[in-house]
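lol so apparently i was supposed to do this last week
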Amino acid sequence: MAKLKSWKELPCGAIIEDMKAVRENKTGAWRSVRPCWNKDKCIQCLNCWIFCPDAAVIVEDGKVTGINYDYCKGCGICANVCPTKVQAITMEEERK
Amino acid sequence: MILAKTGNEALAYAMKQINPDVVAAYPITPSTEIVQIFAQYVSDGKVDSEFVAVESEHSAMSACIGSAASGCRTMTATASQGLALMHEMLFIAGGLRLPIVVPIASRSLSSPLNIHGDHSDSLASRDSGWMQFFCESVQEGYDTLIQCVKIAERASLPAICAVDGFILSHCMERIETFEDKSVREFLGPYKPNWNLLDYKKPILVGPATMQDYYFEFKRSQIEGMNNALPVIEEVQEEFKQKFGRGYGVIEEYRTDDAEAVVLLMGSACGTMREAVDAMRNQGKKVGMVKLRVFRPLPHKLLKETLAKFKTVAVMDRADAVNSYGGPLFTELTSVLYDAPQRPNVLSYVYGLGGKEFSLADAATVLEQAHAGKKEDLVTYVGVR
Ligand code: SF4
Ligand code: SF4
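anyway here it is w/ iron/sulfur cluster bound
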């Protein structure tokens, strides 16, 4: 394990600058419902990507390609902001 | 420019001159006008600020946190139940070290419901990691709010600038204001430590920390507050250089050869000055010490200043409902515990819910302080 830092070495405001550590710390485990993205219905408005509080909507070359379940908390915001007529994201029970 | 302004008008005017990037607010008596007048400045195009009207104070502070975390100079205004509803978010702003600045028209807390002035709201938030300034007059409120922005940004700490509800917020005073340009020059542009929206330098804001790091982050925050006092003194000096009005962290009034002094905060200092003058005319050696900065608590300065008197009467405009008097009294007795010479300390709670604190009340406190004793541990001034 890496040596733990002293309080004097920490950045002001409890921010984390080491994005590698952030990536390694997978935080999706407590999700009870999961967003299911339907490629065929999606109109690529990117609402879900803008609003996801956890940056868990995967975008490649400007297009949504899926959800990153390693970090997705299942909050449902993406499904909520997906245009009503489109409904390309539905929330489904997480199965064991 | 000399203007006639109420406390709320003066604070809103200072906010206009500060021209913050974002103001997110919800109205509450007695600070409603600050927000209302500021919203008018926004509509009239007098400021560049983004005004966010929210559905509650919890949301107001949440929006302020998001804004400040995105590198914006951010303000709101509130009082009483509003500050209480912000309570959870106050700690988050403190821990994130975001220099949000909040003018407050101090007001009592329910229940029973009361809209008038006392210090219960700010003092109940004393452990949230915010600096707290208490002002004696409308002029001081205007000056202090401008100073607060610079202090908060330099110390990376949020700040509350409190004027007494109604007594100052709704009372008109002659105040000397500065040019918009001078205020903006004094403050300079805001350079945030970090910015959540800087995609070239991604960071995580508000992480979960466990037993291994939480305490270390808290220790670092505590150091931020430990370092705040010199920053306050520095900015007070810069303010004096630029605008000619000087303020101290504490102010001593007629204490030179005093045997007994009264320590207090806020508008009642004005009443106390009068009472001190009257007692001095009778040849009694009494004085007043005004505390302007409650957080960080200037403990060394208080100890040095107060240990030389025989008696210190501490007056709290709030009670901690702890069976042992108000917050200022308990902190003061602990500050003086290891003083080389320990004065008698008398505890007074006064003015809750805006109860009048008259010249006669002030004189009674001074008489008792002069005598060096009273019967009860805590005296509730003017309570039937
Ligand atoms: S459910 Fe929440 S966390 Fe998961 S992708 Fe949607 S918005 Fe993001
Ligand atoms: S909000 Fe819906 S339609 Fe828009 S990009 Fe996301 S999934 Fe596609």
